[in-house]
Amino acid sequence: MLRTNWLIDEHITADYTLLERELQRDSPDLAAQTRLLRPSEAQLLRLIKGEIGLLEAVQGIVIDEHGNDTANFLFLPLNDGSGVRPDDGTHWSLLLVDRRDREGVVAFHYDSFGDSNVVRAKELAERFGARLEPARMTRQGNGYDCGVFVVDGTRALVGRLAEGQRPDDEPLHLDNLVASRQALRNRLRGHPPLPR
Length: 196
What we know:
Blueprint lengths: L8 H18 L1 H6 E3 L2 H9 L3 H12 L10 E7 L12 E7 L7 E5 L7 H10 L3 E5 L10 H17 L18 H7 L9
Parallel strand pairs: 1-2, 4-5
Antiparallel strand pairs: 2-3, 3-4
């Protein structure tokens, strides 16, 4: 495969699964408050019609196994596709929903390609009753590493949350993020093949 292929759902899902395990091991309290949605979950949530279906879907995300709403931080990889196929879209961005204040939920949008996914980010933020806020992120230097920026951005934000940083007065900007396809390849050895 070429070194310019986009990531698909499977790659992001595999890295999010690894990150969940690391978070549960290293910071169980934060793990209990954090949800890393899979790309298909985020896309389906965006496409759900009807208030009852939406309410059930959101509750399925934020309610823990004991029936408590413990989800303070939601990470949603956004795809610009209009369907649910893994190869449907052409761009990924990241939405971090901060639910610590249930009356003032905020969704921070990180897009390594500018504001190309802002309409979809707004749609998804509204699903959680959140106001959308832009957050700065390093710009990708090519047209294919947006998915790498999403997984590395998620890891950077989770790391900052684990260190006690919170997006209180402003977003946790990712101005200095260095996304590494090779580091992702190394993490995913033994998982779905990563495009070169």
